[in-house]
User: What shape does this take?
Amino acid sequence: MDVLMLNYEYPPLGGGAGNATAHLLREFSEIGGVSVDLVTSSTRARRVEDLFPNVTAHFLNIGKSGNIHYQTNRDLLTYSWKAWRYARRLVQRNRYDLCHAFFGIPCGYIARRLGLPYVVSLRGSDVPFYNSRFAWPDRLIFQRMSRRIWRDSKGVVANSDGLRNLALETAPHQEIGVIPNGVDTEFFRSAPRSGDGLNVVCVSRLIARKGLGDLIRAVSLVGDPDVRLLLAGSGNRRLDLQKLARNLGVADRVAFLGFVPHEEINRVYREGDLFVLPSLNEGMSNTVLEAMACGLPVVMTDTGGARELIRRGENGFLVPHRSPRAIADRIRYYRDHPAKRDEHGAESRRRAEEMNWRRVAEAYLRLYRDVAREGD
Assistant: This one.
């Protein structure tokens, strides 16, 4: 089976969707029976690279500058134009069974114009009204455009029930499946931590949607010098968050670790006793899955795929949006109940083991085969 895949993110550029694509392509290569051409973005000159056996990436130079983990509207428009022209030439030269678009917009729009049968993976900001940054474009353009893209596809899947439900508000009659994110449970494993106090870990892009100011406020409310926050990630809110920590008097308890390469992020989780993600909106968080695989209990806002990952009182707790006090209460709980930390962390690991990338890849392959059979 020959597949053309579109995703403007691929490591090191982008976030969770890029990492998910990398894991998925590796699994496809190991399973066999599928050949993939990926059209993605480059942080430098255009190039073609064999990523894995039967997997080729076509990196397009979109003139990316600044934060490589945040895509501006200009980046998205540049990728859209260049990817459509490049993918059209690939379609003229090769016989593809289908196109797989990560993100309905812009990649699903490109796929729809290529004339191939296509499937769409909904990831988050491509779903109308997921991201307040796109509120007006969603209302004026993208909601109507998304309905057409989804309607004309051969399959639409979201990465969580929460994201699926949000998408159904735009297209109530659209059939939308769920294929969750996975996690590499061999790479992400727990290890004993030495040292006193309680280390709260958060791995996240430092952007407004992640609600990280609420986490820093929660650390301040806990008021315990032995509670420390390790914040890994980069983004356009870093200076604001550092200023907030200084103003609240907790700068000495909040460590801004900056961008940590994916192959090294395991050591950050292993320094933690608890993972907290106060995001305002999520699809299904890769970092929560990674933290679970490392045996950490999780506190996160009740959004996106949270209820599929976190069972109250079993491996963590869900808290309301914009509630530093609720986060602080849960931090105190885990500080005061070390046995529960261990118990909930062990349950996190067990649940993560049920969500490996091989299962995700096999689910997508079943979808591909259904589309290919439909075209016969």
Q: What stands out?
A: The longest helix spans residues 73-93. The radius of gyration is 21 Å. The chain has a mean pLDDT of 93.
